[in-house]
Structure formats: structure tokens, C-alpha cells
Design goal:
397 residues, alpha+beta, 3 domains, 5-stranded antiparallel sheet, 12 strands, 52% helix, 23% strand
Length: 397
């Protein structure tokens, strides 16, 4: 059947639409007024009967082709659990009005079919039926109820499309995370071996020439960078899948900060790190994960600052519940737009991408770790003057 009009049968208001649309389709096909009325009455009686039993019936009006003959056809589908009785007079009355009437069941639905043959003199063909469908698609609503109904249908369709897009996006995201996890594991092993061999050669007793030593240093340094990137990819994959785990232990924060600064100094030899600590408190943290936070913040402070500039680390108790750690640099700073997005996954400002390497994963991971520890992280920054990253942690009384 070439569908022309479809109406959901939900309440009595739809009876008006069913009758008028049936009449209009029959009229546009060129049927006589008597035939139009007969067909519309049969459709209305079935629609009324179905609405009395359910609010999820569907009426479809169209044209069916059988070889060279065409017929005006209406179908009504509804739940197969509904059975008509003698009390449903409209059902039996409609059967007397149309030449062909059939009730069947398939796929958990009842299907009523009503047909009236179209005279050959009307010269109906598929092109005329398509034009008829286009006419009803563009026709103005009959009343305010139909206008609201059409808008609801349109909104529901948009909502369904968006849900499908979200579902597909979720599937793609899951596959992407799975790929990142597998690829990172596979890449990590050969990088570790390369780094190990480079360190073994460096540790050999016999002397290497200066060019060889320089090459080994570069291999070791670049291997370290690659391992760091791979580990960040693994961490993001774990975060996305909810598998990032923490082993919390009670640690005195001041000695921990001093230790982190001492270790990181070897990674940023061109900067002086000053530390100012408040009263010492204990915190419940995962030592290795919090090392990532400090390493990232201190590394970024050095990365985006000129050589031989100072980096300041402070720690102060606030609100009798949290302790705040701050890392301040005198670097390039950032714009208001960057401040809003700096903790987003893979975010990097256009200006920084041209001058500094990176994938935009470090701060995203750091923010996730801090948040999972019950704290929060933010940044204050002025372009050309520097940035101060702050994060808080709940301390143990």
C-alpha cells in the first residue's frame, strides 16, 4: 500500500481527524460524495471502536495497487489482546459499508483492512498517489489539536533521533576506550624494553664516546616521555570505564609535598621551586595518584615559564575541613576561554599548540584524581603574568 495519511488513535479528538482525512483523501482521488461518505463512515466507526478499548491504535489511509487496478484502503492496527464482542456495534456496522473488510492478527497486533476499488475512469497511477501524499504532507492542520499533534510527532521523532545518536556515540566511545586500553598496553611493553636497554648501556663500565652518550640520553629521555603519554592514555581509559582504583593511606601532607618537590626538581632543573607550608595535617590519599597530580602541576609550571624563573608551592588550611595546595608560576598565563576549558579532556588552546608539545591529558587526569579524593581543583591566571593552580583535599582531624 502507498501510504498517504497516518493518524494515531488516542482519544475522541482523533475521530474528527479520521473522518475528515478519510473524506479528503477520497475526494482528492475523485470519488463521488456518496462513496466518500461511506468510506469515511466505515473508517470512523472502526476508529471509534478501537479508541473505546485502547489509546495506541494507528490508522493509515492509502492506495493499494493490484496489477493495473487501484483501491482506496484504510488499515487500523491495535493490540492483539483486544477482542471485539457483540457490544462493539461499530465494528460490525463498518463491515456492511465497504466491499472488502478483513480482520487478521500478526506480530502481536490486530490488523483491520478496509478497501474500496477505484474506477478505471479516474486514471489513477503511482505518480498521482505520490502527488496526493505530498499534498497532505504540506496541507495546513485542520484544527489546533492536529497542529499540536503534528508538533508532538515532530518533537518525538527528533528525540528518537537524538537518542539513537547518543546510543551510537556511546558505542563508538566504548570501542575507542577499548582500543586505547589495548593499544596502550601493547605499546608500553616495547617502550619499557627500549628504555631498559638504553639504561643498561649507559651503566656499562667501559666508556662510551660522547656522541653515543648523547644518543643514549636522548633515547632514555624520549622513552620516558612516551611511557608518560602511554600511562596517561591508560589512565583516561580506566576513568572512562570507571576502573580507576585507589589505594588510600593516611599520610602527613607537609613531608609528602617536600618529597614531591625534591623528586620533581630533577625533572625541571632550570627552575627554582620555593615551598611555604602551613601547619602539618594528615590526609587520606593514594600516594602514586597524588604524585601524578604534583608532577603534572609542577611540570606544567616549568613548561610554560621562562628558564630560571621561580615556582612557588604553598599549602594552607582553610575552613577547618580542607587543606589547599597551590602551585604558582610567572609564565605565559592563559585567557578566560582557556580557564573555562583547561580541565577538559584533550583541551589545548590554539596558541599553546603552536609552541608547546602535549596532548591535553594531564590536567584532565589530575582533576579526576583530586575530585575522587573529595577535593576540587581550579586555576587563577592572567595572560602574560602567570598562573596559579589550586586544589583542595579533606584532611584528617
Amino acid at each position: 500500500m502507498l501510504e498517504v495519511v497516518t493518524i494515531s488513535l488516542e482519544n475522541e479528538m482523533d475521530l474528527v481527524l479520521a473522518h475528515k482525512r478519510s473524506m479528503k483523501v477520497a475526494e482528492k482521488l475523485g470519488l463521488t460524495t456518496a462513496t466518500q461518505t461511506t468510506f469515511a463512515t466505515a473508517v470512523s466507526e472502526i476508529a471509534r471502536t478501537v479508541i473505546e478499548h485502547t489509546d495506541n491504535g494507528i490508522l493509515t489511509i492509502g492506495v493499494e495497487q493490484n496489477k493495473q487496478r487501484f483501491a482506496l484502503k484504510a488499515t487500523v492496527t491495535f493490540d492483539s489482546s483486544i477482542k471485539f464482542t457483540n457490544a462493539d456495534e461499530g465494528f460490525y456496522y463498518a463491515q456492511k459499508l465497504v466491499p472488502e473488510f478483513n480482520l487478521s492478527e500478526a506480530g502481536g497486533l490486530n490488523l483491520i483492512e478496509m478497501k474500496i476499488g477505484l474506477p478505471r475512469s479516474l486514471r489513477i497511477d503511482r505518480d498521482k498517489v505520490k502527488d496526493l501524499k505530498e499534498y497532505f504532507l504540506n496541507e495546513a492542520p485542520l484544527n489546533a489539536y492536529e497542529e499540536i499533534k503534528k508538533r508532538n510527532i515532530s518533537l518525538n521523532k527528533i528525540a528518537e533521533e537524538q537518542e539513537e545518536e547518543l546510543r551510537q556515540s556511546k558505542i563508538i566511545d566504548e570501542k575507542k576506550n577499548e582500543f586505547i586500553s589495548i593499544a596502550s598496553h601493547e605499546i608500553k611493553t616495547p617502550i619499557t624494553i627500549i628504555k631498559a636497554y638504553a639504561q643498561m648501556v649507559k651503566a656499562l663500565k667501559y666508556e662510551c664516546s660522547d656522541p653515543v652518550k648523547s644518543i643514549l640520553e636522548k633515547i632514555d629521555g624520549q622513552s620516558t616521555k612516551l611511557l608518560s603519554l602511554v600511562q596517561q592514555l591508560l589512565d583516561i581509559s580506566k576513568m572512562e570505564n570507571g576502573h580507576l582504583q585507589y589505594s588510600l593511606e593516611k599520610i602527613e601532607l607537609s613531608p609528602f609535598i617536600i618529597e614531591m618537590v625534591s623528586v620533581t626538581k630533577f625533572l625541571i632543573p632550570n627552575h627554582e621551586v620555593n615551598v611555604t607550608l602551613d601547619d602539618n595535617v594528615s590526609v587520606m590519599i593514594d600516594r602514586l595518584r597524588m604524585e601524578q597530580v604534583f608532577s603534572n602541576l609542577l611540570g606544567n609550571a616549568a613548561k610554560y615559564s621562562a628558564k630560571n624563573t621561580n615556582i612557588h608551592v604553598t599549602c594552607a588550611i582553610e575552613d577547618h575541613q580542607f587543606v589547599k595546595v597551590s602551585v604558582m608560576d610567572k609564565g605565559i598565563g592563559m585567557s578566560a576561554v582557556s580557564i573555562e576549558s583547561i580541565f577538559n579532556k584533550f583541551y589545548r588552546s590554539k596558541d599553546v599548540m603552536r609552541t608547546h608539545a602535549g596532548l591535553g591529558m594531564g590536567l584532565y587526569i589530575a582533576s579526576k584524581i583530586v575530585t575522587d579524593h573529595g577535593g576540587k581543583i581550579w586555576v587563577d591566571s592572567v595572560e602574560g603574568e602567570g598562573s596559579t593552580f589550586h586544589f583542595t583535599l579533606p584532611y584528617v582531624a
